[in-house]
Write a structure and sequence with these properties.
The protein is mainly β and about 150 residues long. It has no helices and eleven strands. The model has no long low-confidence stretch (mean pLDDT about 95).
């Protein structure tokens, strides 16, 4: 579904450079179910499926596409669930994608197509996504969880 970032939907059995990213100073990569994020020097790119907005774009793309609303933000980490993503920037958590099980943490079950800050007063150092749940570690050492707990994962 384009998660290789090579501009097509063809399976590639050998490691292949993603040409549009070769001069982008990429220093972090994050993979989800069928999508990918590449972060470097003030820019964040994503590619792959975006059926619920999990890559920060309204449409699926097979080529690296800049997420304009994250331009200039210091991205510490991105975690990818099945259909949602969490972005950690300056201690704040931004959510994207499907919230059908509450896994985005924004207080509703709608899909989010633009990075949306989770409104908590704490500052965080780590985020982690499961298929339908999410966790975060605060700078104070508290573990936070939200989403679906059908298998007691929260």
């Amino acid at each position: 579904e384009g998660q290789l970032g090579l501009g097509d939907l063809i399976t590639e059995p050998l490691p292949t450079p993603i040409e549009p990213l070769q001069n982008s100073s990429i220093n972090q990569l994050f993979c989800g179910d069928c999508f990918t994020f590449a972060v470097g020097s003030g820019s964040t790119y994503s590619f792959g499926t975006s059926s619920y907005g999990q890559i920060g774009h309204k449409k699926t793309t097979s080529s690296p596409t800049k997420i304009e609303s994250l331009e200039g933000k210091a991205i510490q980490q991105i975690s990818c669930g099945r259909f949602h993503s969490l972005i950690l920037s300056d201690g704040k958590i931004l959510a994207l994608g499907s919230g059908n099980q509450g896994q985005t943490g924004v207080g509703n079950t709608e899909s989010i197509y633009e990075p949306t800050e989770i409104t908590e007063s704490s500052s965080f150092s780590q985020v982690s996504c499961g298929w339908f749940h999410s966790l975060a570690l605060s700078n104070a050492g508290q573990v936070w969880s939200w989403g679906n707990s059908a298998y007691m994962q929260l």
